[in-house]
Design goal:
Elements (H helix, E strand, L loop, with lengths): L1 E5 L24 E2 L6 E2 L24 E7 L11 H4 L22 E4 L2 E4 L6 E5 L3 E3 L5 E3 L1 H10 L7 E5 L7 H14 L2 E4 L11 H6 L3 E4 L4 H11 L1 H11 L2 E5 L1 H4 L4 E4 L7 E3 L9 E3 L8 H11 L5 E4 L3 E6 L2 E7 L6 E7 L4 E6 L3 E2 L1
Parallel strand pairs: 7-13, 10-11, 10-12, 12-13, 14-16, 16-17, 19-22
Antiparallel strand pairs: 1-4, 2-3, 4-21, 5-6, 7-18, 8-9, 14-15, 17-20, 18-19, 20-21
């Protein structure tokens, strides 16, 4: 059952409804193909924006409509929740997002792998999305506003941005790489491909990854992606890049991978849960929340049972901006769709969902 209620005042930390890991929201794509978790370009729409819930740290932030949905019951949950889920950090929200992107000065810089690399802030940055591509005018595909936002977050100024595309989840298909390269040429970016099939492009993956401003991970099978990355030790490289100021981003499987895990059709049409993500972010992640009807109930069931911790989800076209491990903003490249948080209510053993504030890019 879905209950709608108006929220007149934001709750503070420690009160019922406080959402973990969200800094105050401030002001503040593509659907799937037949490949698991892989998006296809979709046209922009003109649907009007929906009022959503504001961030939960500020004492006097006014909000619009909040939607809370309950799934599951005490009888349907597992008797014992995993220690990893119980131990998942629940950072306090921070109020007062400042100017710039996510409240940080994009002019800050740092040194990465022997070069001067633009850093958006002293904090690592991840943009986890269900979007980033759109149908092209004269080409098959163009980069959407979310991918442009990822580059903006890197703070590149005065030179061509360098983007590392990782297509592991779709088997490093060369035709897909060609479309990505073509889209990069259209906007004047230097795009390279970290292919792991049939072999990596270099023995020094660390230097390869750290030489870029942005890493963009494409969609496909997140289960296969994680397995292949583990063989090549890419997870450790990406963690170092994240800590060094390289913006990590991606769509679908390229969103789930940064989290503890999420729901996926990597194993077949019936969604299953993976929990062996890189866990740079101590939350679950749900993608394609509005375009695939089984996604929402699968996320709710996993959160209610304790299989997933607090989980952040995106409709097609939306993205989650994290600074460090805190969610600071939800954005969308199209005029509809949103972001959500799903967390377990311990008193009832059910999953409770709330819609988050969103900024249209």
């Amino acid at each position: 059952m879905v209950a709608h209620r108006a929220v007149g005042r934001v709750r503070g930390p420690g009160q019922v409804g406080h959402l973990p890991g969200i800094r105050a929201s401030g002001s503040a794509t593509p659907r799937r193909t037949t490949s698991p978790d892989e998006p296809r370009p979709i046209p922009e729409t003109t649907a009007g924006p929906t009022a959503v819930r504001a961030g939960l740290a500020a004492d006097r932030v006014r909000t619009g409509l909040s939607t809370r949905t309950g799934y599951g019951s005490p009888e349907s949950t597992t008797a014992v929740r995993s220690a990893a889920v119980r131990a998942a950090p629940r950072p306090r929200l921070r109020a007062g997002v400042r100017g710039g992107v996510g409240g940080h000065d994009l002019g800050a810089t740092g040194v990465v792998a022997g070069r001067i690399a633009a850093m958006p802030a002293p904090e690592p940055t991840i943009l986890a999305t269900s979007g980033g591509y759109r149908a092209g005018h004269r080409t098959d595909m163009e980069f959407g506003k979310l991918l442009h936002f990822a580059v903006e977050l890197s703070g590149v100024d005065g030179r061509r941005p360098s983007v590392c595309h990782v297509g592991t989840a779709n088997g490093d298909q060369r035709a897909g790489n060609a479309r990505i390269s073509e889209a990069g040429r259209l906007v004047g970016w230097d795009v390279s491909h970290l292919n792991l099939f049939t072999m990596p492009p270099t023995d020094d993956l660390r230097s390869f990854v750290l030489s870029h401003d942005v890493v963009w991970v494409g969609g496909g099978s997140v289960a296969n992606l994680l397995a292949v990355w583990r063989v090549h030790g890419l997870g450790d490289v990406l963690r170092e890049a994240w800590q060094a100021g390289v913006v990590l981003s991606g769509v679908s499987a390229g969103s789930i991978c940064w989290h503890v895990g999420g729901t996926t059709d990597s194993f077949g049409p019936e969604l299953r849960v993976v929990t062996n993500g890189l866990a740079l972010l101590p939350y679950g992640n749900g993608v394609h929340y509005d375009s695939e009807k089984t996604r929402r109930p699968a996320v709710h069931a996993a959160v209610a049972s304790g299989e997933l911790p607090v989980t952040y989800c995106t409709d097609d076209g939306a993205g989650l901006l994290y600074r460090g491990t805190e969610l600071v903003q939800v954005v969308s490249e199209i005029s509809h769709g949103g972001g959500y948080v799903v967390q377990r209510d311990e008193s009832s053993g059910t999953a409770q969902e709330e819609k988050l504030d969103i900024r249209r890019l």
